[in-house]
Amino acid sequence: MKRSITAFILSALLLLASCSGASGETASDSSQGEEQIEIGMSFDSFVIERWQRDRDVFVSTAKELGATVNVQNANGDIEKQKEQIEYFINKGVDVIVIVCIDSESLREQVEKARNAGIKIIAYDRLITDSNVDLYITFDNYMVGQLMAEAFLRNGLQGGKVLMLGGSPTDNNVPLVEAGFRDVCAKYRMEIVDSIHCDGWRAEIAGDYIYSHPETVADVDAIMCGNDNLAGQVIQALSVQRLAGEIPVVGQDADLEACQRIVEGTQTMTVYKPFERLAKRAAECAIALARGEELTGDDITTINDGSFDIPYIGLDPIAVTAENMDEVIINSGFHLKEDVYLYAR
Ligand code: BGC
User: Fold this and answer.
1) What are the boundaries of each domain within the chain?
2) Can you tell me which atom of ligand 1 is nearest the CA of 48?
3) Which atom of ligand 1 lies closest to the CA of 125?
4) What is the pTM of this model?
5) Which CATH topology does 140-271+318-339 take?
6) Using N-to-C axis directions, what is the helix angle for 2-22 and 24-35, rounded to 10°?
7) Burial of 44 (0-12, 13-18, 19+ CB in 10 A)
8) Mean per-residue pLDDT for 187-216?
9) Ligand 1 pocket, 181 CB below 6 A?
10) Could you give the 3-state DSSP secondary structure of residue 234?
11) Is the shortest distance between the CB of 170 and ligand 1 below 6 Å?
12) Which of 119, 67, 68 is nearest to 97 (CA)?
């Protein structure tokens, strides 16, 4: 009797199990449970507006594709970034995505990750000589070209320009500057002075304007490494009643930069479709985690200083007051009422 009751309970349990097994939800739950892809992401910082968008789109795309993402903020501290990568390695994640603070300082960590079978994506900024699994960014050389071309369109051929660049440890910076310099050289625009802002600290660019009044009075245009720098520069210019008098360019299409452009104190910015970058990076992270080859027309190779590595370089777009609506508003990047907030 006891045995038959046990047999009954057992078969009832089996029946229950097979019923729930037939439902798609439970089946996929268990298979996902076993194979859940884990991605670790280490950002330089979130001071600049764009990085929050990069993070949000990356995380939501990766989640849709069945992965979990652990996001860490290194707050501009390279030692902290190294610790975060070590933490991800110890945790045994499948892929680590890095917006590096210093393009030359993470070789050891990348090597360790590789030895642990973890894939590495250099996001937006190259990690040099490290043989990462993917470097995905915008065409930084083109960003610089677009900046110089904006000056040309303002009739500055043969003029004098000032170059206030970004962090000297960010490999994007020399690329942007090379593009800028090449166009300047071609059209005889003289770069009268240039500096770099450590850690992308915008106050360094602003301070330059205050402390070099003669140079500022002498130049026809100012190139800023990004919109955050441009913001400080324009504020400093406005104190000297020069805002809107000297063309200033930046990059990122930060909301405030777009506002300045339609108000007339900034000449142009470079819009980089961050959503596309983040989405594509997330797709590639999943493929790499599954051990798949990266495929797509956008994938080429680039040399990182020592190795040829897979590369995706998206095109940036120059934005001025003329195409603000077409590029920024129509794409949904910023809302029209936000961009034209003070310009009415
Ligand atoms: C990015 C820029 C950004 C800057 C500061 C660069 O590497 O390309 O878009 O403004 O870093 O975060």
Assistant:
1) 37-132+274-314, 140-271+318-339
2) 12
3) 7
4) 0.90
5) Rossmann fold (3.40.50)
6) 80
7) buried
8) 98
9) no
10) helix
11) yes
12) 119
